[in-house]
From TrEMBL:
<dbReference type="Pfam" id="PF00551">
    <property type="entry name" value="Formyl_trans_N"/>
</dbReference>
<dbReference type="InterPro" id="IPR002376">
    <property type="entry name" value="Formyl_transf_N"/>
</dbReference>
<protein>
    <recommendedName>
        <fullName>Formyl transferase N-terminal domain-containing protein</fullName>
    </recommendedName>
</protein>
<dbReference type="InterPro" id="IPR036477">
    <property type="entry name" value="Formyl_transf_N_sf"/>
</dbReference>
<feature type="domain" description="Formyl transferase N-terminal">
    <location>
        <begin position="3"/>
        <end position="54"/>
    </location>
</feature>
């Protein structure tokens, strides 16, 4: 959910993510970047380059060892429990651009909005563009339809949705609910 996330390569010790830091760095993720591209930037480019740099430094015998603070200044990365998905977005206080950025970056896995139902059960929303506008009658986080397009309301605007239809998902959706 950050625009400037990072990666850390560290030694493994008895704790979880507590070993001495070898290298770490951050990368700019442009607003609205979708999950696959975000992961490519973080893992494929930043993460791999840090690991190669660390392996080279270890092999040459001059890899740094920076102690991690007892209290981390950043929150630990972890998988969210399914019941936490709906609490990730602060619908009342986050501006539409921030909500859009988070939804686009997590559209493949986050269930912060109700997924399609009926004949489209099992499909996922594709997060399209957003429109900053005053929609005083809309409830943030609720899905609406305007001019045959669906959107989710957010503070200060709306985020348009479309369905990424896949026949395999449709079949699996019906099998799960049968």
């Amino acid at each position: 959910m950050e625009e400037y996330p990072g990666a850390t390569v560290h030694y493994v010790d008895e704790g979880e993510d507590t070993g001495d830091i070898i290298f770490q760095d951050r990368v700019n993720i442009p607003i609205g970047t979708k999950s696959p591209e975000r992961l490519d930037q973080l893992v494929g480019k930043l993460g791999v380059s840090l690991i190669l740099k660390a392996l080279n430094a270890i092999e040459l015998g001059h890899a740094p060892r920076v102690k991690q603070p007892m209290e981390s200044p950043t929150s630990r990365a972890r998988n969210l429990h399914l019941d936490e998905h709906k609490t990730v977005i602060d619908w009342e206080n986050w501006p539409v651009e921030r909500v859009w950025h988070v939804l686009r970056g997590t559209e493949l896995w986050l269930n912060a909005i109700p997924q399609p139902s009926g004949v489209f059960r099992g499909q996922r929303w594709t997060i399209d563009n957003y429109d900053a506008c005053s929609r005083d009658t809309d409830i943030p986080g609720k899905i609406y339809r305007i001019h045959r397009r669906k959107y989710v309301a957010a503070a200060g605007g709306r985020i348009f949705l479309s369905i990424d239809f896949r026949i395999k998902r449709m079949i699996l959706g019906f099998v799960k609910h049968a």
